[in-house]
Every structure is written in structure tokens, then in C-alpha cells.
Amino acid sequence: MKNFPRTNIGEISVSRLVIGTNWFLGFSHTSKAKDCFIKQNIEKRKKMADIFEVFLNYGIDTIVAPPREVLIQAIQEAQDRTGKKMIYISTPAFPVNKDTPVLGFDNDETKRILEQEAKSGAVICMPHQCTTDAMVDRCSRTIRKMDTLMKMIRDYGMVPGLSTHMPETIVYADETGLDTETYISIFNSMGFLMQIEVDWVARIIQSAKKPVLTIKPLASGQLRPLQGLTFVWNAIRPQDMVAVGVMSPDEAREIIEISFAILEKRFPDYQLQETRSKKSVKKN
């Protein structure tokens, strides 16, 4: 079984296809009812481990997720089943308030969070968008107090990165030489949850000094996999990554095959869904 292409975040080798986790943890970006369905039916250690096992069989060993105990347990179960190590990219939130831009992050709370992240097995630590974007200053073109947080992440033995929904984050971090090895950025063909036009974000990704992990390539289920993935894989660089969430082992296999096919410049080999309206276009 062939392995999926890889890239590097700092000195760490990661798979270019990354396991997204919104569809495990109940963040559907669709409705409260869909969130509840995910939590009731998918947010289970065994179900997640079943999906991870499929990805691991293709060398897709990298996962991006917030710190959740059930997720850590599922990662461990998948590792025990396969004997393969997963690379955990964590996206913790660090508290911010009106004083943080001046006084910096709470030192004791930051240490507590980072100690927990390191203990959970996180290899790469990327402060979540709710932390990062709150500190972006468009007037000074800086990300306030983030240099201190990046250093503390290093001190705890993890590789620092930044998760963001703001295109400015990548630009300002590169301009100021901030010690970050990678970025998370929303990127999809319909501009879902993106703050500026798709072509502008594409150019920012192309110009980034560090690899970019693109998220929401399927616009949280509003784009079909072939549509969304064809755009993203062809619009990013060989060093960049795509995170995709799924809800079943079969869906994982489908995403993997479509991604392989796009990168190999061939049409994917997977079974299409069937409805009665397709009867007239099928070959006899």
C-alpha cells in the first residue's frame, strides 16, 4: 500500500493530508442539530480509532485537533492497533483579555496549558485562532506578545505555529520574523469563512515563508470532495498541507483516493453515489 506524500514542519516530517477533527468533535458549522448528531454518534473513542487506522494504513499520520481527552484516547488506541505513531498538532486556546496586548499572557496559566499539551503528546503547538487573531494589530503590523508565547512553546519541547482565520497573521508574522514554523489558514474555492477574496488568500499562501496547513477545503461539507479538493491541491505548494475531516472509515478511503488521484493527475477511482435520477445516464 503506497504512502501519501509528505512535507516538513520545521524538522518534523508530516503527511501532506492531515486528519481534521471538526467532524469528530461536533463543530459542523451547519446547525446545532448537526453538532448534536456528531457528538452523539461520532465522538467515540472506537469510532475515531477506526477512522485513524484507515489513514495510518496510507501513511497519513498527522492530526490537527484541540486538546480533548476522548481524542487523545482514540489516538492511543489507533497507535496500539497499528504500531504506528501519530503526529499530534494541537490548537489550544490561551486566555486573552483587555490587558493581554500590554501585559502579555498570564504566565502561570500559559505554563499550565503548555505542560498539559506536552503531556498529551502534542509535537506541534499552534495557538488557536481565538488567541492568535485577538492579538493581531493592523496598525503596527505585528502580532502582539506572540514572540513570548512562541518561545514558551519551544521551551516545552514543541514546535510553534499559528492558527488563524486572518490573512494578516501570515503576512505580519513573516514581516516581523516571528519564530513560527507553520501556519493554519482557511482556504476553499467558495470563500467559506474567509475574510478576503480567495485569490488574495491564494497569493498569501504562495508567498508564505513557512508551510501552510489549509483547513475547511470542503467548506464544512458545502463542497463535494472532488470539487473542493481539486481546487485546494492545485492551488497550494508542494510544502503545504490540507486538513480534511470525515465521519467514517469509508469516507476516509474516499478522501484518500481522490487526493491521491488529484496529485497523480488522474481521475479518481471510487464509487459514485446513486439516486434514481442517475439511471438515464448510466451505461446499459
What does this structure look like?
The protein is an alpha/beta fold and 284 residues long. The chain contains twelve helices and 13 strands. The protein has a single domain, classed as Alpha-Beta Barrel (TIM Barrel). A five-stranded parallel sheet has the order 3-13-12-11-10, with helices on one face. Helix 4 links the parallel strand 4 (62-65) and strand 5 (87-90).
How is this structure best summarized?
With 284 residues, this protein is α/β, with parallel strands linked by helices. 42% of the residues lie in helices and 15% in strands.
> Helical percent range?
40-55%
Estimated structural class: alpha/beta
Rg over CA atoms, rounded to whole Å, is 19 Å
Mean of residue pLDDT values = 95
Alpha-carbon distance between the two ends: 33 Å
Characterize the largest beta sheet: strand count, sense, and whether it forms a barrel: 5 strands, parallel
CATH topology: TIM Barrel
Q: Using the 3D structure, state the CATH architecture.
A: Alpha-Beta Barrel
